[in-house]
Structures are given as structure tokens and as C-alpha cells.
Specification:
40% of the residues lie in helices and 19% in strands. It has 29 helices and 31 strands. An eleven-stranded mixed sheet has the order 9-8-18-17-16-10-15-14-11-13-12, with helices on both faces. Strands 1, 2, 3, 4, 5, 6 and 7 form a seven-stranded antiparallel sheet that branches. The chain has a five-stranded mixed sheet with strand order 27-28-29-30-31, with helices on both faces. Helix 12 packs across helix 13 (408-418), helix 13 runs antiparallel to helix 14 (425-433) and helix 23 runs antiparallel to helix 24 (694-708). The radius of gyration is 32 Å and the shape is globular. Residues 234-240, 798-810 and 820-825 have low confidence and may be disordered.
Length: 825
């Protein structure tokens, strides 16, 4: 008897030590998150002895009597800055804005108007003897601007903000920092924005750019609403889509594709709300399939119910995934067996503790309203059950390669033994509650035999007994998150269909919220689907979920009596509410931060066939009704592995299932703006292809395609020499695309290397003036409209026959013949 009491005491100590270790672990996170070392130099800082960072502060004028920003600030200045790219350096920016109350704003302007008038009076001749002594016109205009701004604030048309705009360059060498700074300064100066490089205060400036609740005063200035909105990083998705990311659907108002780069968001967690019959499961399958093919994410779909209209199992099988059918199927998960990634498991004691905590939550859902005594006893009895199988928390070698894991029946045996003590009413209660372990829940006692090696996993709980479903839903969701959170490079999207079980219970909601706040660092994104957001309000977690889920989808076909709940929860204005009421099945609102976009989740014909179970074998799939617009493009697509949307006839979204990734790049010819291009995933390395930026590679490829459609064969060199070369009218012409400010001597050497043949430098908006100065204006053509006109004029003479031939060709080859058939050209 004494030995048994001693063992129970040891179990209590083990549970307490585990809790203490967890607290110590989380307390040390700040040290893990921060860099090991930061060394400050006069002009930059050195991070971790290898990365150099330099900061400049934009909007700071050289003198106090002029503004740091022009009155007509270009609203696309941030787009210009973020379009800069190079394999040698990286550019980031931080923009902070703190609203100033209207009362305080008017006080500040009152003071400014007073000082301005005092200054004007100082210029006047008080005795009236010299009428020529008048204040400078600059002072008079300043007063007019102050009064106008005061009027707009008074009428509520403008607001004032304290703002800080800091641009940071990262590189491996001082040369890379200088190149980055040169490119940024060109954009700032062309937009008439003053700036300051705070030498000897680089560390202070760098810290001010971080999301900390403090900063240096010298980085701040006051701006009005127009300038602040132009500099904010939240751009309107209705007017553009990101260059890369996940294709969500089509904007119902503009008809444009909506593509969101999830990496630019604070987190990629998402909440989906949709009534029965709104297309929730169907939409989920569209987005999960695209996350797999476009983002190369691992996707896991957990559902407690079958869906007759959407064959989610067929989608999984099409992509070569694995279906984990719990209940009456062959698959099983033993809750007491610890699953971990043998390649990157890290701290094994942490793995044990995380699984132990998940087990506790499983029992809290399984047996609702457990007392604190029951919860503590379950923890102690679990520790005893593991110990009886020779598994000790502090010694991972006792369970890393375990083949004889305890089961729920073993746990019940501990409860039955302890219940012999008449004083242990907790053990007696749990022993009675766990009778189903021997009957309808007995399948859980089989060994774990699931396949987690696939990139598309469906956990189907529809055959699980109703009494067990909520508990197992929580356990499986947590288990998948724990299993894959070590693989941060791959990234995992874990989607829970019918996630109301997490939202009806305060303890579980807190558990889920904790998973959300840690998810980004672990590389796991949680997508939660539910029928009503009112579940969140019931446990008073609405605001926390909104904060940690920057993406939300509200599906249409909604009953009028539920609209008010949705409107209140998501804080929809009247316009957004009307858009939602007008939405049908497969339509609704996409909420990205503060943006509310009416959207249709439009599948391609191939995606629809897959989701409906009409196609279940990826190897037999061909691209349906999609072809190139001209046969001249066949060789370009085959050689360069890129396909511009405007080169295609048909539904281009099918390419996402064929190993291509959609990006947005600057147009090479024609007007300004971005165009969609599909790039073979195998050739993409971050933001580069081979040794070039994606922008550079695609610009050259587009020009090659343009020439090919006009019967001109152009060669591209991705290594040495000019980028493109072609012959027209027995004349050899070379193109060299420059997207930065290359050293002048190098540019001159490029001209000399082609032996007096014609070399045309293609510029962009940021370096056009520089290139003209270095190599001569006659040798430079700006990308866009200038390049289009140049090519048209170049092709016109002697091309009549070829143009006639072009007009007789309406389509090129079927795209499947080009990219699937591996044809040689």
C-alpha cells in the first residue's frame, strides 16, 4: 500500500515538473526570437555577424520650412519601392501611423497659423515707410494651406496622423547596401520625397522600425489622410492582385482575379462562415487544391460529416493523397501513441509534453464539465499508464522507438484498480464513464496505422460514433498540428470543417486561440469553417479571433434572419452587407484585413470535374479546351517554361494543377500595370529563375514571344552576353534589359563586346534617366509603351507577307501537346 501511495506521489511530481518545464520554455521564447548579436557601425548594423542592415527615414526635410512630402504625392510610390528586386539585397519598409484627434489637430494648426502670421509681420515695415517690405510669397501660401487644412479637419474631411516611414536594406556586403540605397533614392527623389540617412543612429532607427511600443522622435512627422493612405501597405485588392500567392476567385464588381500573397499577411489563418447549402465544402476543396498546387503547401482536411454534393475523397485521391477513415474503416489512431517527425522532432521532452496536453483536452471534451480534481487525476493516471509500459517522460529513449504503446483500455485498468479504494470517487466515476472503451469506442485501442507522408490528407470522422465525434475532432486536429509544425519549410494548412465544437466551449476556444498565435512560427495555418460566427460571441472570443485571423470568407445564400449576426460580428457596413445579401451559392465576401471584397469562388472545368468525382486519376488528365493563340509561341513555352495569360485561349486556372505557379509581373510592352504569367515551379528559386530576377526573366521571355508571333526567331541568353539577339532585314540586333543602375564602366564594356552591332538597352522607370546619361539616349528604350512602339516600327518594313501569314493563324497547338507531351522544337 505504501509503495502505491509513493508511486502516486511520484506521478504528481512528474505532472508538476512538466508544467514547470513548459513555463520555462515559453518564458525563453523572447531570447529565441531575437538575433544573437547586433553590432552598430556608423553607417549600418551587423546582425548575427553576417547580415548588414542600413536604414533611411523618408519624409524628413533638410530644413524645417519645407515639407518632407509633395502635396500631390504619387499614390503608387509604395508599389514602385516594392517592385525593386535583386538577388544581392533585400528591401523592407516600416510605416507607422498614429491618429491625432481632431481637437488636437486643430490646436496644432492654430499654433502653426499663429507662428506663420508672426513671421509675416516680422517682414513688414511697422512704420509704413517702405511698402516693398512684404512677407515672402512662400509664407503667404503656407498660411493659405494651413487655413485650408484647418477647414477640412473642422468639417471632418481630413484627419492628421503622427507617421514614421523607415526603409531598411539588407545585404551581405557594403556594395550590396550601396546598390539598394541607390535604387531607393532614385524612386524617392523622382517622387519628390525628402529623406535622411541617420548615420551613427542606425541601431536606434532599426529598433524604431520594429513592432515595438516605442520609437525615436526623430523618425516621426505629421501627415494628413491623403498622404497617410498613399503610404500605408494595405493596398486595395479590388484594383490589383498580388504578384504571386493563392488564387481565391473573381471580383464580382471588376471581374478581375483575386490573388493574395499569404506571406504578406500577419498570419495566414482563415475563418469561413457559410450556412448549409452555401457551398462551404465545395469552396474549401477549390482553395485547398490551389494551396497544394500553387503554394506547394501540405493540406489536411478534417471533417466530421459526409458531404453528398462534394467528393472530397476524390479530390484527395486525384492528388495522390491519403484518406484516413476513422471509425469503421481500416485506419486508426491510438490516442496514447505519440506521433512525431523523426527527421526534425527537436526537443523530445517537448514532444511528449505537447501530446500529453492534447490528451488532456481530448478527455475534457469527451467528458464534459470535468472537475479540477478529475483533470488532475487524469494527468496522474496517464503518467502511471505510460510508466507501466516502461515509458518515462524524462528519458525519450524509452519511447522513441516504442512498439508496445499503451491504449485506452490500459488507462481504464488504472482507473478500475484505483476505484477499489472507496475514497477515490474520481477513479470510480471515470471507470464508469469509460465503459464505451470496451464497446462502441473499442476501435481506438487498435495500433495507429495512418499514412502521413502525403501532401494531401483527408481525416474523415463521419463514421465515428456521435458520442465520440467532438472529442476525436479536437484530438485529430491537434495531432496533425503537432505532427507537422516542425516542417516549417514546407508549411501546412490544416482545415477543420464544422469547427463549431471548438467554439462552443470556452476552454477549447482558448486552446484553439493559443494554436493560432503560435501557428505562424510553426508553419501551420489553421482554416476553420463554421455555420455561425455567433458561436464565437458565445464564448466572448470574437475580437481575439478577428485579430488572429486576418482572412475571412462569408459565403452567400444566407437567410435574412442570420445576416444581422454576421453583420455585427464582422462589422460590415451597408455596402458590404448588400453585397453579401446579393451573393448566391459559391459567392460571398472575402475579408482581407479591413478590405471587404465581393467574390465568386470560380472553379476551372478541371477543378469542378475533380471535386465532383468525375476525374480521379491525375495521370490521365489533359488540359481541357486551352491552347496557345499562335503557333510561334510553341517553342517559346517549351524552352522558357513560362506562359503569359494573354498567350492563351481558354481557362488558364487549369495550369495550377500541371506544375505551374501564377505570378504578376510588370508589362514589358504596352501601358503600365501588371500581367499574369504562369511559371513552371521547377525553375523558381525564391524570387529568382536561374541567375535572374523573375521580372528580368519574364521581360525577356515576353519579348521573345512577341517577336515569335511576328515570325522572328529570337535567341535568349540567360548566362553571358546580351539577353536577346535576333536578325531582321539582314541586320543583327541585340537587347539588354537593365533593371538597376549598373556600373557605368560595365555598361560601356557590354556595348564593346558585340563588335559594333546594334545593342539596345531596355530600361524601366527607375533607371531610364541614368542609362540615357551613361550609354546615350539613342541606345535606350523604356519598357512599356516605348518598347511596343519600337518593336512595331522595327517589324513593319518588309514584313507584309509574314503579317498576312500571322492573320491566317487563329490558334497554336493545344497546350497539353506543348507542356505535357514533351515535344521537341
Amino acid at each position: 500500500m505504501k509503495i502505491k501511495i509513493l508511486e502516486k506521489f511520484k506521478n504528481k511530481i512528474s505532472v508538476a515538473k512538466m508544467a514547470a518545464d513548459r513555463q520555462i520554455y515559453f518564458d525563453s521564447l523572447p531570447r529565441i526570437m531575437g538575433p544573437s548579436t547586433i553590432e552598430e557601425m556608423p553607417r549600418y548594423i551587423v546582425i548575427n555577424d553576417e547580415t548588414l542592415a542600413r536604414c533611411i527615414v523618408a519624409g524628413i526635410p533638410p530644413t524645417s520650412d519645407i515639407s518632407g512630402y509633395p502635396g500631390d504625392l504619387n499614390p503608387r510610390v509604395i508599389d514602385e519601392l516594392m517592385s525593386l528586386s535583386s538577388s544581392g539585397y533585400k528591401i523592407a519598409y516600416s510605416f507607422a501611423a498614429i491618429p491625432i484627434s481632431n481637437v488636437e489637430s486643430m490646436k496644432m494648426l492654430d499654433s502653426a497659423i499663429y507662428r506663420n502670421r508672426v513671421s509675416q509681420e516680422s517682414f513688414r515695415d511697422k512704420k509704413g515707410q517702405d511698402r516693398n517690405r512684404q512677407p515672402p510669397l512662400k509664407k503667404v501660401l503656407e498660411e493659405s494651406d494651413f487655413v485650408q487644412n484647418y477647414t477640412e479637419i473642422f468639417k471632418g474631411k481630413q484627419k492628421m496622423f503622427h507617421t514614421a516611414f523607415i526603409i531598411i536594406f539588407f545585404g551581405k556586403s557594403e556594395d550590396e547596401l550601396r546598390a539598394a540605397e541607390s535604387h531607393v533614392k532614385v524612386i524617392l527623389e523622382s517622387n519628390r520625397i525628402y529623406y535622411e540617412a541617420p548615420d551613427y543612429r542606425q541601431l536606434d532607427t532599426f529598433i524604431s522600425a520594429q513592432p515595438f511600443p516605442f520609437s525615436q522622435d526623430f523618425t516621426w512627422c505629421e501627415l494628413f489622410s491623403y498622404h497617410t493612405s498613399a503610404l500605408l501597405g494595405t493596398r486595395n485588392t479590388n484594383s490589383r492582385t498580388d504578384e504571386s500567392g493563392l488564387l481565391f476567385g473573381v471580383d464580382l464588381k471588376t471581374g478581375k482575379d483575386i490573388m493574395i500573397d499569404l506571406n504578406t499577411l500577419a498570419a495566414s489563418h482563415m475563418l469561413m462562415v457559410g450556412m448549409t447549402g452555401s457551398g462551404k465544402t465545395y469552396t474549401s476543396m477549390i482553395l485547398l487544391a490551389r494551396a497544394l498546387t500553387m503554394l506547394r503547401k501540405r493540406v489536411i482536411y478534417v471533417t466530421p460529416k459526409a458531404d453528398k454534393g462534394t467528393d472530397y475523397r476524390a479530390v484527395c485521391e486525384y492528388f495522390g493523397g491519403s484518406v484516413i477513415d476513422i471509425g469503421n474503416g481500416e485506419s486508426n489512431i491510438n490516442p496514447l501513441q505519440i506521433l512525431y517527425d523523426e527527421q526534425s522532432h527537436g526537443d523530445m521532452i517537448r514532444v511528449f509534453d505537447a501530446h500529453f496536453e492534447l490528451l488532456t483536452e481530448f478527455f475534457n471534451v469527451l467528458y464534459e464539465k470535468l472537475s479540477s480534481n478529475m483533470t488532475h487525476y487524469i494527468s496522474e493516471s496517464l503518467m502511471e499508464t505510460y510508466k507501466r509500459k516502461g515509458i518515462v517522460r524524462q528519458f525519450p529513449e524509452t519511447w522513441e522507438h516504442c512498439t508496445d504503446w499503451p491504449t485506452l483500455l490500459d488507462l481504464r485498468d488504472v482507473w478500475l484498480e484505483d476505484s477499489q479504494d472507496v475514497k477515490n470517487v474520481t477513479a470510480k466515476a471515470l471507470a464508469d464513464k469509460s465503459f464505451l472503451f470496451t464497446t462502441s469506442w473499442s476501435f481506438l485501442n487498435r495500433p495507429t496505422n495512418i499514412n502521413l507522408s502525403s501532401d494531401f490528407i483527408v481525416c474523415d470522422l463521419s463514421n465515428v460514433p456521435e458520442s465520440l465525434k467532438d472529442g476525436l475532432n479536437v484530438f485529430v486536429t491537434g495531432l496533425m498540428g503537432l505532427r507537422f509544425r516542425t516542417d516549417t519549410k514546407k508549411g501546412t494548412i490544416l482545415m477543420i470543417d464544422e469547427g463549431a465544437v471548438f467554439l462552443r466551449n470556452q476552454r477549447l476556444s482558448t486552446f484553439l486561440l493559443k494554436a493560432l498565435t503560435q501557428g505562424r512560427s510553426f508553419g501551420v495555418s489553421l482554416w476553420l469553417a463554421t455555420q455561425q460566427p455567433s458561436d464565437l460571441q458565445k464564448v466572448n472570443l470574437a475580437e481575439e479571433f478577428r485579430t488572429n485571423m486576418p482572412l475571412s470568407i462569408i459565403l452567400g445564400n444566407m437567410r435574412s434572419d442570420t445576416v444581422d449576426i454576421v453583420k455585427q460580428f464582422f462589422k460590415l457596413d451597408e455596402n458590404a452587407t448588400n453585397d453579401l445579401l446579393a451573393s448566391g451559392v459559391g459567392e460571398g465576401l472575402l475579408l482581407v484585413g479591413s478590405e471587404k471584397i465581393p467574390i465568386r469562388f470560380k472553379p476551372s472545368s478541371l477543378e469542378n470535374d475533380i471535386i465532383k468525382g468525375k476525374i480521379n486519376n491525375k495521370k490521365t488528365t489533359t488540359l481541357v479546351d486551352i491552347s496557345l493563340i499562335h503557333e510561334g509561341l510553341n517553342s517559346v513555352v517549351a524552352e522558357q517554361n513560362i506562359i503569359f495569360q494573354e498567350w492563351l485561349n481558354g481557362d488558364d486556372s487549369q495550369l495550377s494543377t500541371m506544375g505551374y505557379e501564377a505570378r504578376r509581373v510588370q508589362k514589358a510592352t504596352g501601358g503600365a500595370g501588371l500581367v499574369k504569367v504562369w511559371i513552371k515551379k521547377d525553375i523558381i528559386n525564391g524570387e529568382t529563375i536561374i541567375n535572374q530576377s523573375i521580372d528580368h526573366y519574364c521581360t525577356c521571355g515576353f519579348i521573345q514571344g512577341f517577336l515569335a508571333m511576328n515570325g522572328i526567331k529570337a535567341e535568349i541568353s540567360h548566362q553571358e552576353g546580351p539577353d536577346l539577339s535576333f536578325e531582321i532585314a539582314e541586320k543583327k540586333i541585340f537587347f539588354e534589359y537593365e533593371h538597376g543602375e549598373q556600373n557605368a564602366q560595365i555598361l560601356q564594356e557590354k556595348k564593346q563586346q558585340i563588335n559594333n552591332e546594334e545593342l539596345i538597352f531596355i530600361s524601366n522607370a527607375s533607371n531610364h534617366k541614368y542609362l540615357c546619361e551613361v550609354v546615350g539616349e539613342q541606345n535606350v528604350i523604356k519598357r512599356g509603351r516605348q518598347l511596343a512602339d519600337f518593336l512595331d516600327n522595327l517589324i513593319e518594313p518588309g514584313q507584309e507577307k509574314k503579317k498576312e501569314d500571322k492573320n491566317t493563324i487563329t490558334n497554336g497547338s493545344l497546350l497539353s501537346d506543348v507542356i505535357i507531351g514533351n515535344k521537341a522544337f
